[in-house]
């Protein structure tokens, strides 16, 4: 009996110990599950209340780092800029700023030039980085992309420098010529010669100022406010009349052809100026006794039918290097010829802005010593008008009205194809 009692007591004690050990193991397991892991530390739960909402509405790229330099929160813009990779801040100067701020609590700001990821371009990404402490453990990094702002500032700086140079040339010439007239007051022939030169420089200065005004107008005004259907053949006729004298002086033949009775929708004055600039350039850069052709046609495009107006010359042509820059302000393929013809270097820039503001584009084909073809592509009147009316209706519609934008969209009607007369195209370069 004593032996059996001892065995029973030992078994009871073993059972109690097993139960205690199992309970302790269960409690330890629960505590381990509730303990924050390294991964759970890097979630939105560790952010102070409201910070996540604020970061989501910021325009800047935002990155929040913990005491181990791990990324707790990062905006999509931060990933797009390549600031965060693999859960880590990938820019060493910014990482060092974050460590310094975490150590002393001071706010730091610096501008950096970062290489672009995944592109073969050599230009850098300009950013402004600002680091500040966020609570006792976290650091907030805000990064602003300054690339576009720097590009615009560079364009503005170059534009001011170019304008100053272009204005200085005729103004300086007028000053020198006026002194020459005063010194040659007793020589009528010299006075007449210098006065003629003064007229040429005054005309060049007037043209430059007028084209600056035109460029400013096409950049700032909305051409569709006073839009109307414009006949393409009338625009072509105006462009030819504008250049008839220069073409006659050089014995250049101008020929118009293509499809008749085409219409575009836009500002008549701007469209006439754009096409006139293309024809004037073709005449100015063509040798004597050559041809300049202007042809219009209708083409199908994804956004609807467009009108193409092509201006072809047999001039000096444009190199591949120059074709990338000819639409820049004040850029000239042949500066000497531009000086001789009074060119300002703003004509093609005006054409580019007019085309873009009317929902179109301008392209160029050219080969050196073979001529050039500039093509102005614009939406046809019906397509462009319907698009403008839909945009106006969307702007006037109250937010949340719940109207279907497609419900009021009408299909533009086009006249019968037999009404379009096909004219023989001019014999110019293909």
Task: Describe this structure as you would to a colleague.
The protein is α+β, with helices and mostly antiparallel strands and 430 residues long. It has helices at 2-34, 38-41, 51-57, 76-80, 92-104, 147-183, 188-220, 232-249, 268-284, 320-323, 335-341, 347-357, 381-396; strands spanning 61-65, 71-74, 84-85, 88-89, 108-115, 124-134, 138-145, 228-231, 253-259, 263-266, 291-299, 306-313, 361-367, 371-379, 422-423. Helix 8 packs parallel to helix 9 (268-284). It is elongated, with a radius of gyration of 36 Å. The termini are far apart. The model is unreliable at 36-45 and 398-430 (pLDDT under 50). Keywords: ATP-binding, Cell membrane, Kinase, Membrane, Nucleotide-binding, Phosphoprotein, Transferase, Transmembrane, Transmembrane helix, Two-component regulatory system. Residues 162-382 form the Histidine kinase domain. It catalyses: ATP + protein L-histidine = ADP + protein N-phospho-L-histidine. It is a multi-pass membrane protein.
Topology:
Blueprint: H1 2-34, H2 38-41, H3 51-57, E1 61-65, E2 71-74, H4 76-80, E3 84-85, E4 88-89, H5 92-104, E5 108-115, E6 124-134, E7 138-145, H6 147-183, H7 188-220, E8 228-231, H8 232-249, E9 253-259, E10 263-266, H9 268-284, E11 291-299, E12 306-313, H10 320-323, H11 335-341, H12 347-357, E13 361-367, E14 371-379, H13 381-396, E15 422-423
Parallel strand pairs: 9-11
Antiparallel strand pairs: 1-2, 1-7, 3-4, 5-6, 6-7, 8-10, 9-15, 11-12, 12-14, 13-14
Helix pairs in contact: 6-7, 7-12, 8-9, 9-12
